[in-house]
Amino acid sequence: MKREDLKKLGLSDEQIEGVMSAHGKDITSLQEKVNGLTNERDGLKSQLDERDQQLVDLQKNSKNVDDLNEKIKQLQADNQKVNEDWQNKLATQTKNFRIETALREAKARNVKAVLPFIDTEKVTVDGDNLKGLDEQIKAIQQSDSYLFDEGKPEPRINIGGAFNNGENGTDGKVDPVVSSIAARMKSI
């Protein structure tokens, strides 16, 4: 979805901004899910390959039942540790994605610039919520407000050339010269 396409449909700049914001939230959520599933798939593939190799090694090296039982116990412990490490990695990744999403929603100008100010150890995931993050974001917004977009509208330049957020500075009256130039510009 591009801004130009929305302009062609006749939407105002405010409407376009609203559509792009909603679209961005949807894309961010979907991207988070895709990244999580991709990492999970890759991790499971590597675990499967590792276990297949362990079985091949086990068949080659097993001379007697005692050696085989000992090797099985060791492999089970190793596999359990790998599984726990993988679950921790996924939980950390999910938490990081949610923190980045929350920073985008708080209108951080650059998420990577704000992340070092966040103590992720104090942030906990509770279902779909993050505990301890809102307080940190508010503190950063107060101490380092330049890192966040304050929502002030950008000054628009009208045809009259004034920089008064879209007002032409003539008490609502349009200069006839400006009107004639605007009419000629539209016909081009």
Automatic annotation (TrEMBL):
Source taxon at top rank: Bacteria
Coiled-coil intervals, chain numbering: 27-85
Key words, A-Z: Coiled coil
A Pfam cross-reference name: Phage_scaffold
Protein name per its UniProtKB record: Phage scaffolding protein
Lineage: Bacteria, Bacillati, Bacillota, Bacilli, Lactobacillales
